[in-house]
Amino acid sequence: MNHAAKSGSLTRLTGIDDVHMAAKRINNLVHRTPVLTCQALNEALGHRVFLKCENFQKVGAFKFRGACNAVFSLDDAEAKNGVIAHSSGNHAQALALAARLRGIPAYIVMPSNAPQVKKDAVAGYGGYITFCEPTLQARESTQDKIIQKTGARVVHPYDNDLVIAGQGTAALELLQEVPDLDIVMTPVGGGGLLAGTALVVASFNPKVKTIGAEPEAADDAARSLAAGHIIPSENPATIADGLLTSLGSRNFEIITDSVDSIVTVSEASIVRAMRFVWERIKIIIEPSAAVPIAALFEKRVGQGPKNIGIIISGGNVDLGSLPWNHES
After folding, report:
1. DSSP category for residue 3
2. CATH 3.40.50.1100: which residues of the chain?
């Protein structure tokens, strides 16, 4: 399936062949993460649920797949000046590690108010951090100055063909291991993971549904899909801090073509799902990763038991700010 024809403004869009190429390119660089099941979770939800645990991926998140594919797709001339992104989250860590493995510099622009744990992680992976004011304008202008000085290439965290293809490799592995799924779910923020997953699922079996999940308090993707055009997120406030960004243009094209629905969930359900996984499955997931499970607790995927695969997007949590520590 090739989505380039749908877009008049973009020169090309990712297709399933790009995902297969990405899988070959990054095979020896990423972890093939486990798929876990839990009887207690199945009984609580009324479905058979298969968790593709990208919280066990390098840097603790699926983001390493896309960053790695983008960095290792560059030829030597393109790579020599390094790569750059503005990010305060998992993409910053992923790009820093991918660049280190390639032997090139990674310049990361981070807002000054980013959590110290994230600053430490990016530095630990060898990223060259420049701090700026916590506004999009400051982030972009600081990034532009560094590009002018270094010639580094931008690797956007989600609105990037190579990143989308890399993210899709998680779903490729999931379906290779568990082919008889009815639904595959991912959280959705900028849309890279959902878009890459949708490409894979549509190619594998059009009868399998791809469903995105996002917080009610950051529901721009659901509103965008319903409206048929991107509706930017405005001042979202959710515990799922990895899902605050608006959809990218490339991602939206693919999501429009290949995603069956996007459902939304409450903050309370996100906390409930996150705590259930910690306590009953004994793995650490971040709030964003809990959103699809929260959707199942809220019975947002229809009636009757189903085989459901979920991409657990990551496990990077500030342990000093656990949500249930603040419950009354």
Report:
1. -
2. 4-62+161-326, 64-154
Amino acid 152 reads A
Q: Which of 73, 88, 203, 233 is catalytic?
A: 88
Percentage of the chain lying above the pLDDT 70 cut: 95
Q: Tokens for 71?
A: 């960095």
Mean pLDDT, residues 170-194 taken together: 97
Q: Which CATH class is domain 64-154?
A: alpha beta
- Cα–Cα distance measured from residue 100 to residue 225, given in angstroms and rounded to the nearest whole number: 37
Q: Active-site residue among 52, 58, 63, 119?
A: 63
Token output for 269? 């359900």
Cα–Cα separations (whole angstroms), residue 3 to 10, 18, 169: 10, 12, 18
Active site (annotated) includes residue 88: yes
8 Å CB contact between 95 and 72: no
| pLDDT given for residue 301 in this prediction | 92
Q: Cα–Cα distance between 319 and 325 in angstroms, integer?
A: 10
At the top level of CATH, the class of 4-62+161-326 is alpha beta
